[in-house]
From TrEMBL:
Residues 2-53 form the Transposase zinc-binding domain. InterPro entries: Transposase_32, Zn_Tnp. GO terms for biological process: DNA transposition. This is Transposase zinc-binding domain-containing protein. Pfam families: Y2_Tnp, Zn_Tnp_IS91. It comes from Butyrivibrio proteoclasticus. One of its GO terms (molecular function) is DNA binding. Residues 95-270 form the Transposase IS801/IS1294 domain. The lineage of its organism: Bacteria, Bacillati, Bacillota, Clostridia, Lachnospirales.
Length: 355
């Protein structure tokens, strides 16, 4: 509850649900995630690659979600080995970010890895070396071999393992060129990189713009998408419960990391701090301020939520309510005492909210 010190007007501001599937909170989460990635990027050209798998293997990742880690490990090993072969003595290392997507455009189960990789890397000497040629023939075969080997080692059930060995042999027979890896054009401009991060790496399962209508009588939902093969617009109407089933299968497990940083972006060395970043560190606070709650409401809906509707003065925080009951800040501090860091032994009144 906020109050105006000038005219006494009171106003309640609701909490956010913080759910990734909420149209509002999920969009904000995606924006913050894309912004955090852009802060890590080096000021160089990047390439966006997509590591895919065959349809016959998708059900293994749905039945055992721990196998999704194999996608990260396989893609990372391929990129690391490819750059290592260029200069073994200098330990040539690029910077790359791997993002897991488990959905396709029709919301079906389709796990694949999006990779944003720098076209170059830094060695032990600290000098940057530019690389503008990637051997996708090698990457396809290497990714197929690495992923199938990792999956075979992770599957422990004897019956499933025997079935997987048969499908593994068929995979080598049917996909003689390896798993399909799609590489988008080089991202030379930093604004283009930022757009790609927001569009491909930070997007939710489905946007509100793709949901056309909801029929209350028939309990059906109509949505559209562009078919990946030929970009033809497809409109699909399905029961609401089926729509929900398609969505919730993409909810990740608790504490599962959908975004992982590798190479230069994943390590913390003093020499790497000398590399020029895509966004200068001095601009971070300014850009982060646009995603704060008050600024976000103002930019999205055109009004300041803390402005008094009567006298237009800035309202101040008065009280906090949870489950329709007033909660004092002292009570919050008392409850947080059990979660404080072991070194923190300060009186309750001196605690900060972050503590």
């Amino acid at each position: 509850m906020y109050g105006c010190a000038e005219c006494g007007t009171l106003k309640f501001i609701p909490f956010r649900c913080h759910s990734r599937f909420c149209p509002t909170c999920g969009a904000l989460y995606s924006q913050k995630r894309a912004q955090a990635m852009s802060f890590k990027l080096i000021n160089c050209q990047h390439r966006h690659c997509v590591f895919t798998i065959s349809k016959e293997l998708r059900h293994y990742f749905l039945e055992d979600r721990d196998l999704l880690n194999c996608l990260f490990d396989a893609a990372s090993s391929v990129i690391h080995q490819m750059f290592y072969k260029m200069n073994k003595s200098q330990n040539f290392t690029p910077g790359y970010i791997l993002v897991l997507h488990t959905f396709g455009r029709p919301l079906e189960w389709n796990p694949h890895i999006h990779c944003l990789i720098s076209e170059g890397g830094v060695g032990d000497t600290g000098f940057w070396r530019k690389v503008d040629f990637f051997s996708f023939k090698y990457m396809r075969h290497a990714f197929q071999t690495a992923l199938l080997s990792l999956m075979e080692n992770r599957i422990t059930d004897p019956q499933k393992k025997a079935q997987f060995k048969r499908e593994k042999a068929l995979s080598y027979k049917n996909q003689k060129d390896g798993f399909y890896i799609y590489a988008k054009p080089t991202l030379a401009d930093k604004n283009t990189v930022a757009k790609y991060i927001g569009r491909y790496l930070g997007r939710p399962v489905i946007g509100l713009s793709r949901i056309d209508s909801y029929d209350k009588e028939k309990d059906t939902i109509t949505f559209h998408y562009n078919r990946h093969d030929d970009e033809v617009l497809v409109t699909e109407t399905i029961p609401a419960i089926e729509f929900i089933k398609r969505l919730i299968q993409h909810i990740p497990e608790k504490d599962f990391k959908m975004i992982r940083y590798y190479g230069v972006y994943g390590r913390h060395r003093e020499s790497d701090k000398k590399l020029y970043r895509l966004i200068h560190p001095s601009k971070k606070p300014f850009l982060q301020s646009f995603l704060k709650w008050r600024s976000g409401i103002l930019s999205s809906f055109g009004y300041d939520p803390l402005k008094c509707p009567k006298c237009n003065s800035t309202m101040k925080f008065l009280e906090l309510y949870f489950n329709h009951k007033r909660v004092s800040l002292e009570d919050l501090y008392e409850k947080a005492m059990g979660k404080c860091r072991p070194k923190c032994r300060a009186p309750v009144q001196t605690h900060s909210l972050s503590c």
